[in-house]
Amino acid sequence: MSDQQQDFSKHESLFRMNMDFAFPYESTSVWLQEMDISPFDLPYIQQVLLESFEDWSEMTESLSIRRNSHWAVVNHEGTWVAGDEAIHTQLEETYFELVQRCITSETSVYEGLSTLADNIEHAGRFCAVPIFSRSQHTMLAIFISILQPDQSGDTFQDAMEATTLHYRSCLYRRFEYIFVSDVMKVQKNAERESSRRSILFQIMQRMHDQIDVDTVLTEVLDSISVLYPTITLQLFMSQDHQSNNPRVKPLLFHPWGEDVSVRAFMDGKLIIQDYSAKDGLDNGVEIAIPLGGKQGVYGVFHLLLSKELREDLDLQLITMMVDTAGNAFENAKLYEQSNILIHELRLINELTQRLNQSLQLADIYQLANQELLNIFKADYCCILQYNEDRDGLEVVSSNVLSISKDVFDIDYGFGGLVYGKKEPIILSDYHLSAKVSSKLMEVTESQSLIATPLIVNGKIMGAILLTNCSPHFFSYDNYRLLQTLASHIGLSISNALLHAELGRMANRDMLTDLYARHYLDEKIQEYQGTDFCGSLIVVDIDQFKQVNDTYGHQKGDKILKKVSEIVKTSIRQLDTPARWGGEELAVYLPQLGLHQAMKVAEVIRTRVATETNPCVTVSSGIAEWNWMDEKVSVDSLFYRADMALYRAKNSGRNQIQMEDRNDRGSA
């Protein structure tokens, strides 16, 4: 036996025990006969007296005692209840004292009509017999009769008493009928409540067995439809919830007015109202039941039914089902959200690991582009970065080849909108609601878009745009997740920028911002492995120690910076300038020979002599290498350029000397 059956048996035994204790009689009919009308019931039995008189009149209509006689009944206070109009018209005047005497004495009153008043046309007899309760002898009413002379024989009193007892039996039959009706109503309500709880238990069990949000909603919709198949039922959801059930629809808030579903959602209360000519139903009833849980209201069940069905509708059961569905929906939604959060954390962790595998900015942009396309199932992705030199947003990574490497104005398109406002955006349908022109959306024919600013170290440096060709493709969860991922992408970009800056600082001279000597050595070695020739210029500031002694070291540093700037602006972008040591500078010119390098060195010498203040001069030595040399090395090249510089110094300074062929053998 199951636990439920055991509980039912216990309750049944307890009920029988209480019944035996309260009603010890073997027969239920005996127990019913013991029920009686108490003095407290007297103010409420007027209708029972009336209905009993109608029953008595119908049953005694064919009796001889009813012929040419008048009958009536008044309550225990003498107030008219029912009867013939001939008695009613004379009750307050002619028969008042007789009725009061019957009430006071609680005995039957018989009086000849000739003694009552002069206006009585025919001799007869007035009869008033009190009616008492079965057990407490409480006066319930007075049965009145006006008998004709031929009915006033010796046996009229017995006949009157018998007729009164007949009415009394009709009265108690009505009383027992009312009591039994109440008992049956209680039993019916109990059975209905039991059935309701059984149905609700089964529905609750099925709903709580489900952890999928859409399945929970379908279960409650199907359950209500099975109970009431003629009802038109829909569920309006306020959340961003996609359902395969055609009866689940979005709850729309119209600016021109609120319907019953919106009002039920806003108030969180059940609303019932009548309507006419709606959805093929005339003069029906419209019911809106909010679907809510502990954290809020999520939607509204909307029911349309006829007024005839309204009487049979167990609204309490449906309300309990909806409340249960609200809790089950909330639990399923929380479970779904927890899974989404776990999935998002896993995505963030995996994305961060992949992004951290490289510290090259281009690799990070490309990897972020691919990962975002996979995560959001987007059709297109575009990452924009602010380009200071061109004062625009440059496409640094995108799977749209037609806009790759394009530079847009900082206020153009959705990228400019996000960059300018520093806020993310979500667009459901570009063709219907977009007021911003976008080359990305038009070229790809996309309709949905989510975009977020790309922030690095608290400073906005670009934007991330994801698009899809279908409208309403991206959800609010996608919109929120993109912002989270963008922050991690920004962190990876920040690490790459810091790594690049650290590398730049390691390869640069802090004072002159020229490359360091070790970097120059590496570049020359790299070029010597790939090129066929190259030249090296070594520049030395003449009498720089005297400048420091005369003007101070701060002025000397400014002179050194100025000469370095002249060197950088006098060479090509592919040339490599470096601080070789102290006041000596060096420039490597790939794929240039001695005579070409001589022209560059002359430009530098001339500009230094004219653009520095105080005026200084420089001496330079030039050396070259080519692929036909017997020995190609960095040290050899530097040695020969240094020897040429030494000759320039010894020859009077402020001049340029090329390498001596004899130095090749000593290098």
TrEMBL record:
Listed GO molecular functions?
Answer: diguanylate cyclase activity
Q: Which residues form the GGDEF domain?
A: 532-661
Q: What Pfam families does this protein map onto?
A: GAF, GGDEF
Q: Which residues form a coiled coil?
A: none
GO CC term (a single one) = plasma membrane
The residue range of the signal peptide is none
User: What biological-process terms (Gene Ontology) are attached?
Assistant: cell adhesion involved in single-species biofilm formation; negative regulation of bacterial-type flagellum-dependent cell motility
Which Gene3D superfamilies does the entry link to? 3.30.450.40, 3.30.70.270
PROSITE patterns given for it? GGDEF
Q: What is this protein called?
A: GGDEF/response regulator receiver domain protein
- Which species is this record about? Paenibacillus pini JCM 16418
